[in-house]
From TrEMBL:
Monomer or homodimer. This is Spore photoproduct lyase. It comes from Peribacillus cavernae. One of its GO terms (molecular function) is 4 iron, 4 sulfur cluster binding. Keywords: 4Fe-4S, DNA damage, DNA repair, DNA-binding, Iron, Iron-sulfur, Lyase, Metal-binding, S-adenosyl-L-methionine, Sporulation. It comes from the Bacteria. The gene is splB.
Length: 342
């Protein structure tokens, strides 16, 4: 069982203490006896303890920075939503393949933002622009927000904010099972709670520091019982020896656990494993012993949206993945909707 995250080291931007949540968090960490240091900016954490890159990287992953989100212009999101809404950046998990490895670069520490009312005000403006169309906000583009929320309750406040909104919808995805504090949030069905799931091989070898599959499924059942619309992201779909039986077993476990009512409005998203050249470099530096297969010669080259090429599976492999997993979803969850495969 992965214990809920507790930072070993906390940095705070002085201005964060002008916000109620900033004061509350620093007082909480002080009472927990955690080392608290000051920083001029959440983008400028230097001198992290550690003798080499390997140690510094691991220290960073257990460091929390309490700061202010200055940029309130939201990025347009992935296929799942119109906008990314920024409550946190960084993650305490150690997923070897994670794309945050390269986007976070030299800043793998976790940042939580305390000016949440300003973030909500910005969201309100985006919703007004698109009204009466609904606007979906994705809260997990740059972090696993659930992994830190038992400390901050930012996500809980966001769920209740969108629960009251007419045109807003919230979505996020997590690999953590620490959801109990979110079960009584007044969500009014406007938040889709998604879990990232994978077969046991991928979770065992590539997702250290995250909840195991059975824990995520148990948490998903609790979330469904709390009335949230539910979704699953199967990602990254990774071809390893025995992958077909591994993914079949994963769907069987899910099917055995999910109550009937939770299947009515169920979504699946499927994302194949991919990597870029810069990501490969960073992954091999951060996880030198990884078993992750990163051989470009076995992959197909594909241009990305932002001019950065990535290595994906070959067309035949992609068809095989799509058919195999798609058929399992149709078989075990005939009422579910497959939102996309990428």
């Amino acid at each position: 069982m992965v214990k809920p995250f507790v930072p070993q080291l906390v940095y705070v931007e002085p201005r964060a203490l002008e916000y109620p949540l900033g004061k509350e968090l620093i007082s909480k960490f002080d009472n927990m006896g955690i080392d608290i240091r000051e920083t001029t900016s959440h983008n400028q954490i230097r001198n992290l303890p550690g003798d080499n890159h390997f140690q510094k990287y691991r220290t960073a992953k257990s460091t929390l920075v309490v700061g202010i989100r200055k940029t309130l212009k939201f990025d347009t999101s992935k296929p799942s939503a119109e906008y990314a809404i920024p409550f946190a950046t960084g993650c305490m998990g150690h997923c070897h393949y994670c794309y945050l490895q390269t986007t976070m670069g030299s800043k793998p520490y976790i940042r939580t933002y305390v000016n949440i009312d300003e973030i909500f005000d910005a969201a309100e403006e985006y919703m007004e622009e698109r009204a009466p169309e609904p606007t979906r906000f994705e809260a997990s583009c740059t972090s696993d927000i659930v992994g830190v929320d038992h400390l901050t309750h930012t996500l809980k406040k966001a769920i209740e904010f969108f629960g009251k909104s007419e045109h807003g919808r919230l979505r996020f995805v997590t690999k953590f099972a620490h959801v109990d504090h979110l079960l009584d949030a007044k969500h009014n069905g406007r938040t889709r709670f998604r879990f990232s799931i994978n077969d046991d091989y991928v979770i065992k070898y590539f997702e250290p520091g995250t909840s195991r599959l059975h824990e995520r499924i148990e948490a998903a059942v609790k979330v469904a019982e709390a009335g949230y619309p539910l979704g699953f992201i199967v990602a990254p779909i990774y071809l390893h020896e025995g992958w077909k039986s591994g993914y079949k077993e994963m769907f069987e476990k899910l099917e055995a656990a999910l109550p009937a009512f939770a299947r009515k409005d169920l979504t699946f998203e499927m994302i194949q494993h991919r990597f870029t050249k810069p990501a490969k470099r960073v992954i091999q530096e951060n996880y030198p012993m990884t078993k992750l297969e990163l051989d470009e010669s076995k992959r197909k080259w594909k241009w990305g949206r932002y001019g950065i090429g990535k290595y994906v599976y070959t067309n035949e492999e992609q068809e095989d993945i799509k058919d195999t997993l798609g058929n399992h979803i149709k078989h075990y969850f005939p009422e579910a909707k497959i939102e996309y495969f990428t």
